[in-house]
Fold:
Amino acid sequence: MPKLGMGPVRRAQIFRAVTEVIAKESFSGTTLKKVADAAGVSTGTVNHYFANKQAMLIETLGHIAVEWNEDTRKAVDGAEPGLPRLRALVDAAGPSSSINRLRWKVWMAAWGEALQSPELRVALRRSRQVWNGILAERLEVINDELGGAKIDARAISRQYDALQNGLFVQLVTTDMADEPVISEILYTFLRERLGIPSAVAAAEPVKASRVRAKRKASATDPMLAGRDVARL
Structure:
């Protein structure tokens, strides 16, 4: 039996192992033994936390989705207001990092397996609904910061999700080094859907750099301390 208090740690360890095995072996090639070997635990330990292989796979997808969504929230909320947040939204989901590349491979494997698994289809549908909600919320915030007209954020998020999936799946499966091009396509799509003129977008990096410089100066200059530099 696992030691008292080790449950969350052990589950996280197994989730990481499942992610690595699926990315390498696909859903069909993933077994409890392979996961146990990758996690450095016994097959009995894996069985202790998950009723069967299907449950393990579905719970792992849920775990990945929660982490991915939280990473996206932090990236967007931590960026400068306006277009920098839009750029952060695009970059947060991209497969440039090793962990995101694994996540995309697991997601693609799940889509394929979902053709034969009603339970997996339900899990993926729920995950997509949550993700589209996060997208819509952030797009509304960004649009308000830019003073844009009213938008149908839900519709835009669904369109963006479909475009993002197609482009990033192509990137991951072909190992092409054109992620900057794909990211720019996605960024431009969102910018245009928000009705942001190209001239405003071109000026945004300059404005953002001025804000960062002003904030840096305020940290050392008491005359600037406390000012609302975000309104520059």
The domain at 1-50 is CATH 1.10.10.60 (Arc Repressor Mutant, subunit A). The chain has two domains: 1-50, 62-196.
